[in-house]
Amino acid sequence: MILLCLIATVMLAGVQFSTAAEMATIHGAVYEWNSFDPLEDVIVEVNSTPPQSMLAKYGIYSFNLEPGDYLISASFYGGNNLVAYTEEEITITGDGDYVMDLLLLPVYYDAPFNGTEFSELDEIANLSDANDRETNPFSLSIILILIFIAVLSVGGYYFVKQRSVTSISEDDSHHISHDNFGSIIPDDKWQELPDDLREVIDLIAKNEGRITQKELRTKVKHSEAKVSLMVSDLESRGIVRKFKKGRGNVIILEKREDAEDSNQNV
Predict the structure, then answer these.
(1) Each residue of 33-79: pLDDT tens digit?
(2) 47: exposed, middle or buried (C-beta count within 10 Å: 0-12, 13-18, 19+)?
(3) Predicted TM-score (pTM) of this structure
(4) Alpha-carbon gap, residue 89 to 47, rounded angstroms
(5) What is the pLDDT of residues 118-129, one digit of tens each?
(6) Looking at the domain 178-265, which fold is it?
(7) CA distance 65 to 90
(8) 195-206 and 119-174 helices cross at what angle (nearest 10)?
(9) Class of domain 2-106
(10) What confidence score (pLDDT) does residue 266 get?
């Protein structure tokens, strides 16, 4: 009987020792949010089993906890009203020393509210909304007007420039005389040519009778496809000859055979 009592006593002492060995200490300081000074008389609680709470008299708290997940909360009261509050989660994985400092934040929503305390803030907010409603459409209108004026200006500039180039090209083509091309084109064929083909012939003649198709494209107002068709048209009329050179073409004015014969007879 005495032996059984000794065994039970040893086992109980072992259980108590084991439980004490698994206990951890968590502690820290409680600070005020705006000054970061330790805040006194804060109620600190932890949801252990059973729950624990203490009054952090000098802004310092401490609990002994077993391994597990806990929620630590801190509350600071002014009179009967909650002034500041915070809560933090912590996981205890074993025995040891855990430090967790707490920063209390102001709790405005827990203060007495009678609907008039924030009237000034409401007026400011309403005034800001009214200003936004009055300013935003005005600003948007100005931006749209400026964009419209800019588009009109750019469009007008290019329109006038295009008209000027077209007028110059048309005037030049109409004033191209056949006198300079009698050795290339007979009078009757010259009259049949449209102004754009006369312009091409004039450009080639001014370039010593030969020009690359790429250079010709830069000197006329027509597209690359249009220039290619015009060259092919002149080639089919026997007025120019096109040669392949590298990646481009060289265009050469043809001479009239009857003109060459007449020159030889002379």
Answers:
(1) 888 889 999 999 999 999 999 999 889 999 999 999 999 999 999 88
(2) middle
(3) 0.36
(4) 10
(5) 455 455 455 555
(6) Arc Repressor Mutant, subunit A (1.10.10)
(7) 11
(8) 80
(9) mainly beta
(10) 44
The DSSP code sequence of 228-242 is HHHHHHHHHTTSEEE
DSSP state of 209: T
Q: Maximum distance among all alpha carbons in the chain?
A: 158
What's the pLDDT at 247? 81
Return the domain boundaries, the chain: 2-106, 178-265
What DSSP state is assigned to residue 105?
A: E
**Spatial contact of 234 and 247, defined as CB atoms under 8 Å apart:** no
- CA nearest neighbour of 241 among 208, 203, 207, 210: 210
Q: Which pLDDT does position 250 carry in this prediction?
A: 92
* Sites in the chain below the pLDDT cut of 50: 3-4, 10, 15, 17-19, 110-118, 121, 124, 168-169, 171-174, 259, 262-266
Instruction: Tell me how far CA of residue 106 lies from CA of 31, 53, 94, in angstroms.
Output: 12, 21, 34
Give pLDDT, residue 43. 95
Tokens representing residue 111 in the block:
């203060």
How deeply is 90 buried, as exposed, middle or buried, from its count of CB atoms within 10 A (0-12, 13-18, 19+)? middle
- The rounded distance, in Å, linking the Cα atoms of 66 and 90 is 12
Burial class of residue 211, CB neighbours in 10 A (0-12, 13-18, 19+): buried
**How far apart (Å, rounded) are the C-alpha atoms in residues 73 and 86?**
6
pLDDT of residue 99: 94
101 near 29, Cβ under 8 Å?
yes
Q: How far is CA 8 from the centre of its chain?
A: 75
DSSP state, residue 51: -
